[in-house]
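Researcher: Let's do a round of design. I'm pasting the structure tokens now; please hold your answer until I've finished.
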């Protein structure tokens, strides 16, 4: 709830376990007068939600409008680090990617039309609220991803087990975009052919990592090799 209230998204109403009311009063006092707060005992909350909601906090929010991908890229600071997600339909992976994006100060995330919704309940939970705080946009199906990135001055690196360049050799350009694909199919061959394909060397006989794990390694590399990420305003 604290993350939602500090984000660009507007709370509509709150449903809280009655045992949590006293501890949350300082936060509740910051709500607009028009936001209702409902309280119920734990059994009622579990019945409404459909599973045991152990923390006893449920909020309904209104999404802020999404910017156009081109506008979001152009508005990033310099230096900038962005993530581009292609075909990632697993909510756990999207949540993990946004958690890493928030942890390493990624300036923006772009998702193609095949990616699942970062605001799905499970994705928000896995992201620990990261999907509420990291700016993101959808790439239109008609948009050319490499051209879109190049137009805003980004150097694009595509993660793939077949990438010819080991991650450790890469410096961080001023405006960096890292592309991640779905586990299994990975990034499309046409996209890999138009970007610099990068790999993470592994032990013999093993060739891939979970995409969220991969993103953590990649983002750590770029935030260590280049300028430190800046604190994002609420």
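Researcher: That's everything. Go ahead.
Model: Designed sequence:
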């Amino acid at each position: 709830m604290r993350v939602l209230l500090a984000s660009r998204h507007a709370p509509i109403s709150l449903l809280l376990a009655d045992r949590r009311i006293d501890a949350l009063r300082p936060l509740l006092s910051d709500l607009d007068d028009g936001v209702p707060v409902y309280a119920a005992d734990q059994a009622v909350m579990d019945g409404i939600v459909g599973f045991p909601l152990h923390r006893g906090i449920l909020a309904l929010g209104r999404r802020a409008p999404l910017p156009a991908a081109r506008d979001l890229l152009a508005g990033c600071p310099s230096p900038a680090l962005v993530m581009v997600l292609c075909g990632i339909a697993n909510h756990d992976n999207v949540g993990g990617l946004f958690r890493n994006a928030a942890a390493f100060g990624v300036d923006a995330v772009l998702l193609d039309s095949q990616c699942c919704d970062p605001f799905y309940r499970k994705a928000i939970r896995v992201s620990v609220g990261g999907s509420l705080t990291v700016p993101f946009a959808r790439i239109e199906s008609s948009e050319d991803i490499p051209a879109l990135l190049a137009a805003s001055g980004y150097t694009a690196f595509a993660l793939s087990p077949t990438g010819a360049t080991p991650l450790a050799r890469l410096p961080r350009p001023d405006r960096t975009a890292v592309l991640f694909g779905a586990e299994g199919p990975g990034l499309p061959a046409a996209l890999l052919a138009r970007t610099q394909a990068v790999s993470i060397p592994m032990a013999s006989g093993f060739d891939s990592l979970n995409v969220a794990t991969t993103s953590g390694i990649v983002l750590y590399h770029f935030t260590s090799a280049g300028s430190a990420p800046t604190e994002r305003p609420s």
